[in-house]
Design goal:
This protein is mainly α. It has one domain (2-103). The protein contains five helices and no strands. The protein has helices at residues 2-18, 30-41, 54-71, 75-84, 88-103. Helix 1 (2-18) packs parallel to helix 3. The protein is globular and about 35 Å long. The protein starts with a helix and ends in a 6-residue tail after the last helix.
């Protein structure tokens, strides 16, 4: 059962990583990006720390996507803002994943 939970969480986090490949990722930047992050944080997004909780991962994704829809976020912003809410083991997962993607030549947030 633990393997299934890990798989669901890994899939949820992979969804965020896949958004990096979108060509819209360079459309926002600079001071506007910081203002949008502040706006995102005012929506009180929950943090995600991983663990063996696929239901929690699904709820976190739904919550974050709801904020993204209301804010009409660009794909680049979704990656930056979504990964900003990662804590504990998921934060470390993202740091390692980001490094791997950068080695492969992908520009990531």
């Amino acid at each position: 059962m633990a393997g299934r939970n890990y798989h669901a969480i890994a899939n949820a986090l992979q969804t965020l990583a896949q958004a990096i490949g979108n060509p819209n990722r360079r459309e926002a930047g600079g001071a506007v990006e910081y203002q949008e992050l502040d706006r995102f944080q005012r929506n009180n997004p929950s943090s995600f720390n991983g663990g063996y909780n696929p239901g929690g991962a699904q709820n976190w994704i739904r919550e974050i996507e709801k904020i993204f829809r209301v804010m009409a976020c660009l794909e680049r912003q979704k990656v930056a803002f979504g990964t900003h809410t990662l804590v504990e083991e998921t934060k470390y997962w993202w740091e390692n994943t980001r490094q791997c993607l950068e080695v492969e030549g992908q520009n990531v947030t």
